Protein 1
Amino acid sequence: MNDDGRSDISLRVNDVTHGLNVDNRTTLLDALRDALDLTGSKKGCDRGQCGACTVLLDGRRVVSCLTLAVAAEGTEITTVEGLAPDGELRPLQRAFIQLDGFQCGYCTSGQLCSAVGMLAEHAAGWPSAATVDVSADASAQELDAVEVRERMSGNLCRCGAYPSIVRAVLETADQQAVTR
Amino acid sequence: MNAPADVITDAVGTSRPRLEGPEKVSGRARYAADHPMHDLAFGVVVTSPVARGRIRDIDASAVLTMPGVLGVLDHRNAPRLDPQASGFFGPDGSMQLLQSDSIPHAGRAVALVVAQTPHEAQAAADALAVTCDAHPHDTTFTADHPAGRAALTVLGEDANVGDVDAELASSPVVVDERYFTPEEHCSAMEPHAATAWWDGGRLQAFDSNQGAFDVARTLASLFSLELDQVRVRSEHVGGGFGSKGLLGPQLILATMGSMAFGRPVRVTLTRRQVFLMIGMRPATEQRVRLGADTDGSLRAIDHQAAFEISPLAEWVENCPEGSKVLYATRAIRTRITAVPLDLTPPGPMRGPGLTPGSFALESAMDELAERLGIDPLELRLRNEPAVGPVSGLPYGSRNLAACLREGARRFGWHSRDPRPRRRREGHLLVGTGLAATAFGSSAFPSTASITAETDGSYTVRIAASDIGTGSRTALVAIAAEALRVGTERIRIRIADSDLGPAWSASGSRGTPSWAWAINEAATRLREQPHDPTRPVTVTVDTAELFTGRFVREVHAYSAIFAEVTVDPATGEVRTRRLLGMFAIGRVVNPLLARSQVIGGMIMGLGMALHEEGVRDPVSGRQVNADFAGYHIPAHADVPDIEADFVPEYEPDEPSGVKGAGEIGTVGTAAAIANAVWHATGLRHRVLPIRLDRVVEEMA
Ligand code: FES
Ligand code: FES
């Protein structure tokens, strides 16, 4: 940190390291959008209330509007642009397209990143408020629509694409279970 | 289904994923605030601290020395605007930003601070010293407010059919109730944003709106420019639902900034500013009186609605619209009262008028069924009209009865015990309800160009908008059918005002209007001699064909069925099942149309249970201007929803289609409210059906 309230940091985003000089108050969302031109992450509220800005830090989902850029140093940041790094869409993204898991698309980056994080959380055996038996063996827990809805409730969608999003997430989870 | 005999492609009627899908799932789709731009400056809006009054002073001296600040615009130095520039219904004071020291409502823009970076602009806006004289304000809406006056009749004259009073007096069964709906907000996930710049004497903009051409035309008139001096583009828009139908404050202010500072300026409203500055669905109070014979035949419908308005701009929340077309009855009377208050001018929100109106009418119909001891489904079927009960015109395709019957079959309506509070599952009360809906459909003029390229492909150009509606994808299918080729041979360009006049994505008139122009252009192109050596372009403006006369009642219809559980201890209502059957003419793309009507139903669910702009009468301000306070449905609120379409073709409409954008929302709140009655035996005539209201009623 310098005296002027700014810091030189390096952010590793989608496997690329960027050196940045930021105002210490800069959120990760603003750093991504304004400094790195990664505008896939959206600002729906800037208050942690909508989930449109969700990204992954070391594989865990965070709302980037409530994360300081300086605090994200040293982590592996994945944004929606990094979900298909070589241009080949991953199964979750393809399921969103095929099952129409979005309309305007504005919440979609957040829904996708959130779903990737959520599937990992579930696979790791983390329970949610909807989990009935929290003592159950993680790998045996079944992911159903109620679980997905509960775990995805931080991501608002005003177009109301929810039923298709849930279907796309469940279909992807099924595929992952088959390939695991 | 009697589609035209010479249709040879399967372009229309086939489910296809959205064309822009790959861009949207990979974050590559650029919305209005996403375009990188050289030398871009950022404007932050400063809003009024009082609900009514006068600006005494704005002292920018301290702010002008802050890092990065380029300047401050307020009523003393902002570019002058044409006061006659029109909104929906004539001159619109909500567009007259930074023109005077008068403050007409809370959240009014009083200054724009422009700086090199968004942070510098925000810091300066926070520091700007604005002093105001507060004047007394009135933001408290009631139907009998002394300022109330008749609303404009531009959307249809009041109905005066038969003798309503006499019919009510001689009706053996009468319902006479009042219904209340609060201010509701479109709350599209993308906050309103615009980037404006000048390019060789031409004003250019990326803007978040529902109709690039309409916005460009209004922008030109507001700034006294020629139409060809303005170009507005809105390639990707993060939802609108009505709130982006007009020229918005973001673009007005960005334009002012670009004029004053000679460089591109971007203005993005904060979420809070979207709530405070953008027109909401006005609060309504409605009285509905229904009279019927004991066999369920309606004798009278009396629908009187009041809504709040701002003196700055006319608006019509046309609540009784559905009461004029849904049911046969001997007498119909409708009245609409507008109550001017010190508010942000209300504006359109998905199914304006019809949506709150349907809550009142379809709740009253349910109450009538209860009092008659007739099944609510049967009551609606018994009152199917032969002709428009007010207009006397014959109906176009009218498949409300088919929607009701097929919906009932799929929902399992017939096994329902009509008595309330009979079904329990553990501690939960369970109930079901339904509502019927009509939504007017028609096509308005637009311009389309189609070019037959030399490689056998076609390029379609039309200033349509895709705000999540799937219009890009749907219009390719419509063009393919009209040109008798496969969809893979069609390219489309939309959302650019330079493409010519076009109806906006509003009033559920987008697809029919654009389809009309595309069909006409395709027909004329097919009549042209084919020349493989050079591209051939045909341009059609359907304004030359538009008569404005409607000889039939053409509406989309739906029947919505809901099942809810009510926890009598906590008052929590949960929607467990929701089913909608829709008659929307020919369905261009079932995958996308289903998404659209389901999204509409979810907005109706929010209206029924969650959504309420709460205004503090002392400050005159909305106190819940964020998503923590203004609740829209989240994943966990929404069950799996079934929506389907009855086969239909509307011969009076281009390509046989009717609009689908709003009808999902219209009937859903009443269906849920009726289900809550069935679960609990208690009527909720005030929306939303909050926990505290349920608990209070139960006590
Ligand atoms: S923008 Fe971060 S949660 Fe809404
Ligand atoms: S797709 Fe529009 S907000 Fe989710």
Note: The pocket of FE2/S2 (inorganic) cluster (ligand 1) is lined by residues A 43-46, 48-53, 63, 65 (CB under 6 Å).
Protein 2
Amino acid sequence: MRVLVDLNRCQGYAQCCFLAPESFKLVGEEALMYDSGPDDALKEKIERAAASCPVQAIMVEYMNGHADEMVKSGTSEAEARHGA
Amino acid sequence: MAGKSLFQQVNDYAHRANPYPLYAEMRKTPVLGDEDGNYAVSSYRLITELLHDPRLSSDIRARPPDDPKQQAVAQSSISPAFIRTDPPEHDRLRRMLTRQFGPPHTVGMIDNMRGDLEKYVNGLLDRMQDRKQIDIVDDYAYPFPVDVICKLLGIPPEDEKRFHGWAEDIAFSLDPAIGEEGRKLIAKGLVARNELGQYMRALIDVHRKQPGNDMLSRLITDSSADGRLTEEELVSSSVTLLIAGHETTVNLITNGTLTLLRNPDVFERLRHEPDLIIPLVEETLRFEPPVQFNSQRTALADITIDGVTIPKGAPVYLMIAAGNRDPVRFNEPDRFIPDREDNQHLGFGSGIHYCFGAPLARVEVQIALNALARRLINPRLVVDPPPYRQSAVLRGPRHLLVDVDGIKP
Ligand code: HEM
Ligand code: SF4
């Protein structure tokens, strides 16, 4: 699976780091580091993390053998972003 | 009564079971002032804007001296907690508390609690196995988060009997002070806060002498670049964590259960699809938010938005529950869609005061609702709508009676 965080949107709330600490880490006060190709075993935790992001900056993509299923947690680009 | 403002009606207990038509009416005038001088903001866009606007203060001391809430704070024997302060004080306190709660300093604590939490809710259900009727509030949704926050902080759970009444009075005093009744609630809240403060002071003393492996002990002994928490800061922070930790979560568990019982097809789906719980809890936070509106904000300057000027010193209410159903932001906002996409709800607020306990609350409620779905056999709502608690801000049922054919092991 692949994970993508829109770091322009991310505001360092760290909600993801609470729920999937294996994949999302805070460096210093509010810089986010994350694993973009996590193990499939972490699927549930990563879904929890993506759902909890207050600005919906996390996108999760699954590649399964047959069709590529894209599960999108982030908002579309047309959606206005509200400032920090 | 004719002539009541929309905001007064929202606060009127008569509308507690279903305030949503009032919120829809309110959104037609997204910045709405009334004769009490209260301003209600109800569109999604303006609420999010104001939650990020430094001209809106969380500090009640910014209100004029004749404001009942301002007077209560002035008479309180404990200092305002970080939920009621502005930067830089707020940020400093929040940083110091976060060190003992989450990343980067404390990594994985909440996630690691899952096993114990699952054990606890299943234990509650085990003890009800011969029952045909349960009260979701008293038997389940209340005891669970109380136990969790007590153990986390290092408060003996059996002391619940002592702080229950205080916690409730404090929760009710978050409502706006409307009329004589409102002022009474504020006065009761003040007494309760002082008493709970006394209790915490004594408990902090015990933990100082004999630190344990709990958050309170770690907060007492910790020091960082921000220094140490003072005795006053420890008292007000722990009072806030205790109240915020259970008076809200009880409502999310209960509102979630009620919504599932009203949508039996979704309840059935959850039984087969436990992962659905993740977006489902977010949708509950949007659809029936336990905190219906922020009731503690004050304008620090004249603020003009959408052509309306909110005068300096005015109380401003950010109507989360109205913004969460704003059709400009959400498709079919009055429908409960358990796997709704793009669900950037305001249930935990937004901006610098974004709920401190959100990760814990999410884990608790996901576990509590999934256990009900898995174990209750043929659950049926007994009274609809159920009786509600007094509070308009922290809105939720007082009881939620459910008939069951049994409880699976
Ligand atoms: C479902 C349960 C919960 C809901 C719906 C909820 C909701 C909220 C909301 C809307 C705010 C923003 C208040 C504002 O902007 O003034 C908030 C702040 C806060 N919440 Fe929660 N909350 C919940 C559970 C918890 C728990 C379990 C804790 C404690 C462990 C907690 C602790 C706090 C604290 C300390 C703040 C203040 C944060 C700050 O001012 O920086 N909450 N919560
Ligand atoms: S929860 Fe969202 S905003 Fe917060 S750090 Fe993670 S990605 Fe960024």
Note: The longest strand of chain B covers residues 294-299.
Protein 3
Amino acid sequence: MSHWNPRFEEMPAPELDRLQYRLLKTLAYRLYAFSPFYHARMRESGVHPDDIRSLEDVQKLPFMFKGDLRDNYPDRLFTVPHEELVRYHVSSGTTGKPTVVGYTEKDIELWTESLARALTSIGLTRGDVIQVSYGYGLFTGGLGLHYGAERIGATVLPTSVGNTERQIELMQDLGATAICCTPSYLLHIGEVAERMGIHLGRDTSLRAGILGAEPWTEEMRRHVQDWLGIRAYDIYGTSELSGPMFTECADQRGVHIWRDLALVEVIDPETGESLAPGERGELVLTMLQKEALPICRYRIGDVSSVKDGECSCGRAHPRIERITGRVDDMLIIRGINVFPSQIEHVLLGLSEVGEHFQIEVDRKGALDDMLVRVEVRKEAFSDKIADLMAIQRRVADRLKSVLNVAVRVELVEPGSLPRFEGKAKRVIDKRVL
Amino acid sequence: MTPDEFIIRQISVFSENRPGRLAAIAHALEEERVNIFAFSIAEASGFGVVRALVDKPEKAHARLTEDGFNVAFTDVIAVRMRDEPGGLYEVASMLGDTGINIEYSYAYSGPAGAVLILRVDRPAEAIERILSAGKELLSAAAFR
Ligand SMILES: [Zn+2]
């Protein structure tokens, strides 16, 4: 089976436009009527639900921010009575209060529906054994995929996280065909399996990895696929949206966002203006049918772009590119938006230097000056200065071609750059603006 | 003596140009009771390479690696120089004539007089050439 819900997945674009417009309009009225918070915000920006007369009018609606959820802890943004809630999930914030998400029965239903479509689009179906190695509990990863996998009739192996050797044993003995986990955990599983004399691609039935909940790159995908011999798919969704709920299809070129469930925009984080497909900026999502915790023009803070053109699978639902970083980390260097994640991406593609880096920005005269410090790898160390300078030049050239801005590169000793657990702080901005 | 005996293991250490790095290297070697015979620093913008001939290269390598330095062994040769002008030129042009490339060189003065350390692209040939020209090479044993 290639489509879980052909009615929506095969719906042509003009029909999706009409459907989405209707859902958006309904949402605007519902928020105006039932969300004191969003009502006030609409009043402040002088917009009334009657002003929404086309799909493009979504741009008239005010934004919601992560801080709004924290400021209204725990449940002041909910628009349904408590007895309507069937579940809570809580995401721990790196700073301040956590975010609490409540779910009605329909919220859980649509989250499950979204994943049922997504898993089916990858090629998973009844008879597959899906190992869910995301954490179960307050975190949304485990339970979300659990429900989605059960919905399509697959067999769920709810291993959650930890006890890797046991995970590998069960994977082998019970014939898991897909695993859902973070990309770094899959790499860890691969290493542990290798030590146990097991190659995931050859010695197990595994053929797909559904990877997300942390940043990863195209290089990592290639590495996972070549090394483990399985196909790796990106999954996206934060707890505010419900949880991880959108994935790539079998084509593996961007995560499909179901238009009947969500409206995706990409904006310039500085001006708030909408960007065209292909242009990279801040992801803004509107959940069209979410009940307990409505999400309207929510600025997630993730950097992405909407892919241009149609997907080979034929679905007229837009695809977003893999998240390439956080908006908070964006730097403006001589007027050009630079994301540290782009630098990481370049470094991962260069064998002479490590993936750790540090950025120092300063102002030389009227111009911004950007310095990137990278560690020379042991294998690349030559005691000839000319060789080292060639490495320095190669890194600078690659960075310039990707960032569109000239960068100075400094080679530093291996292990000398700070390592981070959790959120990395890689930028030192010395500019006095 | 076979040509191999004239190949000397130099340790090369990648170092950032910031205060204290050199001292850290020297201090680590001192703690390991490693004697330094010859020493040179090559610098570029922001970084440098410290090159040293020591009596216990393995020990030095192990300790510096443990301390987090990027360390490599490099094969070099050591020519004893007569203390007279033109000595360096003589060696360089001799090697150049046979197409052997000197990648870098540095000199030091030890108890046995002036010595020129060379890294060349074809050490075995260079050794043969230098010896047959009647020049004196120091053997690796001289640095233990
Ligand atoms: Zn597709």
Note: Chain B has a mean pLDDT of 88.
